[in-house]
Amino acid sequence: MVIKVFLASSSGSTAIKKKQQDVLGFLEALKVDYAPLDIACNEDNRMWMRENVPVEKKPTNGIPLPPQIFNEESYCGDYETFFDAKEDNAVFAFLGLPPPPGSKQAPVKQEEAQEEVEDEEAKGEDDQPVSEGEEDLGSEEEEELRQLEEEEEAPEVTEEEEDE
């Protein structure tokens, strides 16, 4: 899968230039394979980009500005959605790519499965009812409390009984 980044090599807008540099620099830092496609020098690239940006993602004038990002034929987003994904540490998900091994960004399905396991474990710990007035304590504290309760319930042995 190749990420396609549609750019304008001869843009007069410094804002567009900065956005393009930000996207390319970040993709390079992540070592993501991408193909920069110039819409200023290549009419086919410009037409393809304009036709393939979804209608709901086009600006009010109908002409999307670079950078526009695609994963092959699939639209990923513009600079703003890329920036949001970057802030959320979700760039690989945004690009439709699997995260590299050992990265903090795990696939969504794995994260959800892990959360379910943690929820089940938490429920398992909470299965024991808590008596009224009794706090939910850690295992060491629970053991100490049990020992104290056992000592209180044991019949007291007086000194006279011990002598017998």
How would you concisely characterize the structure shown here?
The chain is α+β, with helices and mostly antiparallel strands and 164 residues long. The chain has helices at 14-29, 43-52, 79-87, 91-95, 108-126, 139-153, 159-163, and strands spanning 3-7, 34-38, 68-71, 74-78. 48% of the residues lie in helices and 12% in strands.
Helical residue percent? 40-55%
Number of helical segments?
A: 7
User: What multimeric state do the chains show?
Assistant: single chain
N-to-C series of helices and strands: EHEHEEHHHHH
Shape: elongated
The overall strand count is 4
Instruction: Give the rounded overall mean pLDDT.
Output: 80
Main pleated-sheet profile: 4 strands, mixed
Write the layout of secondary structure elements.
Layout: E1 3-7, H1 14-29, E2 34-38, H2 43-52, E3 68-71, E4 74-78, H3 79-87, H4 91-95, H5 108-126, H6 139-153, H7 159-163
Parallel strand pairs: 1-2
Antiparallel strand pairs: 1-3, 3-4
